[in-house]
Amino acid sequence: MQFDVTILGSNGAVAAHNRYPSSQIVNYNGRHFMVDCGEGSQFRMNTFGVKWSKLDHIFISHLHGDHYYGLIGLLTTFNLHWRETELNIYCPPPLEEIIKLNFKHSKTELRYQIKFRHTRAEGTETIYEDELLSIHTFPLLHRLPTTGFLFKEKQHHRKIIPSKIEEYQIPYELIKKIKRGEDFVLPTGHIISNAELTTAPSPPRSYAYCSDTSFSIETVNYVSGVNLLYHEATFMEEHAVRAAETYHTTSVQAAQVAEQAKAGQLLLGHFSARYDNLEPLAKESQSIFPNSHLAVEGKTFQVV
Amino acid sequence: MQFDVTILGSNGAVAAHNRYPSSQIVNYNGRHFMVDCGEGSQFRMNTFGVKWSKLDHIFISHLHGDHYYGLIGLLTTFNLHWRETELNIYCPPPLEEIIKLNFKHSKTELRYQIKFRHTRAEGTETIYEDELLSIHTFPLLHRLPTTGFLFKEKQHHRKIIPSKIEEYQIPYELIKKIKRGEDFVLPTGHIISNAELTTAPSPPRSYAYCSDTSFSIETVNYVSGVNLLYHEATFMEEHAVRAAETYHTTSVQAAQVAEQAKAGQLLLGHFSARYDNLEPLAKESQSIFPNSHLAVEGKTFQVV
């Protein structure tokens, strides 16, 4: 099952060095989920060949402009592209008012419905669920109410061993039940145990998005054991004071969160415009958490 | 005196083919005036090396998103760049409400003042004036209240002939008066006529911006005799019906406006996303008005 993250923008508040503000596409099994939508995200989708038609869910972490200024343009372009499919936006409540005010004054009548689902920056909430995946918010520590997002794959069914179907002449209609753990009873009454018929499924994978936030040990609990962790790393450790003042994180702190959460892999993002070369941030993080990588725009990272 | 126009974006509503939505910088004598501010305009300023510090006046023609969605991001970036100089925004009244709502919810306290000057899409109005230049609105024919903008250089003073200053020993304090047309009286009482002392100044130049608009013969009156005319040409003539339906113009119609207005030069812009290659639009326009050019992004056009 495809589960990956494509970075559209990974810069901080001021766009610089050809890096764009925050936005990314989580692709789960061909379904696209956008997380944050800074200015120009629609251009980045074009540049990186992300399909518009697969995107029905957009998640906005908070209302600093570098995380949502591209949304109104994207919604307008959807309309001009004759979109008719419902779109779901998960966001802090005031964003609905902002979007509606823009459309009121441009006399825009959308061809598609937008369903706003308001997020809360206290506690955790399940905001999306289908048969394969659930998505949850958790609070981050920033100057505005801000949520992180946790994408959790559901436990897959057991895998049936193809040769066993033939061996025991298992009828098609029983396969689903066996995948769910049932044994198979032969016409003779003899029981073939599930363990003989199936193998264990791969463990469910998860991805967490944490931006923007101060360094917070609370975060570790929310993202514990994720396979892939995107964590902001606005500053190098030498600017730890500036990071604290602005409710941002250093690359060392991001690595500490990843290490303590026992994450599989760390993606660093939301870089300050002061850094043209980002390699030192990666190196600093790798010194604590070796499997750290820069969220390079246009790159796709597997959740494994 | 420098008087030119740099194109930041010249595409229509849907960004495509690496072309950005409407925005341009009119540079008069080192002062930058931005006309329209589609999404990504701040990135285009970076790409084309347009100086942020010279920009104190922004003009928004109307409230379709491709003409203003980049403004909120630009204002935010100004703030993050520690701007303190007052900024003037000339726009339809609701834009003030939209901007203020965004800043309210992001708890943004700007370090600089914004002075909103509301435009009206009826009649003409002088909205800016300094010692060298005046800027005027005029109505366009679109689905929303829309104004064009006319930049008019003021008549320069006559030029004094340097050798005459020495010949007649003209005192420094009289030069200003002579430039304004006064004669010079010699100590003997003999009058030296202004015509002998000065040459005529260059005729004042003008630039007009017309986007978005239906083809309208009224426009001809407002832009009569301009040196440079930017006129939208969203469609080829074969799509004249679509142009009329959507209150846009074809390249042939844009050429007709330029021809009838006796403009010096025509810049075509606001291209539909359906055209990858724009040369046919230029050719169509040139068949009626030979001095027609495509508003290529990043290019600077002189007002001469």
Distance between the termini of chain A: 11 Å
Order of helices and strands of chain A: EEEHEHEHEEEEEHHEEHEEHEHHEHEE
CATH class of the largest domain in chain A: Alpha Beta
| Count of the domains of chain A | 2
The percentage of residues in β strands of chain A lies in 25-35%
What does this structure look like?
The structure is a homodimer of 304-residue chains. In chain A, strand 7 (125-129) and strand 8 form a beta hairpin. The first copy, chain A, has helices at residues 41-48, 71-80, 94-105, 162-167, 175-179, 194-197, 217-222, 240-245, 251-260, 279-286; strands at residues 3-9, 23-28, 31-37, 55-59, 87-91, 114-118, 125-129, 133-139, 147-153, 159-160, 184-185, 191-192, 198-199, 206-210, 228-232, 265-269, 292-294, 300-302. The model of chain A has no long low-confidence stretch (mean pLDDT 96). Chain A has two domains: 3-156 and 202-302, Metallo-beta-lactamase, Chain A (4-Layer Sandwich); 159-199, no CATH class. In chain A, the strands form four sheets. In chain A, strands 6-5-4-3-2-1-18 form a seven-stranded mixed β-sheet. In chain A, strands 7-8-9-14-15-16-17 form a seven-stranded mixed β-sheet, covered by helices on one side. Chain A is an alpha/beta fold and 304 residues long. At the A-B interface, helix 1, helix 2 and helix 3 of A face helix 1, helix 2 and helix 3 of B.
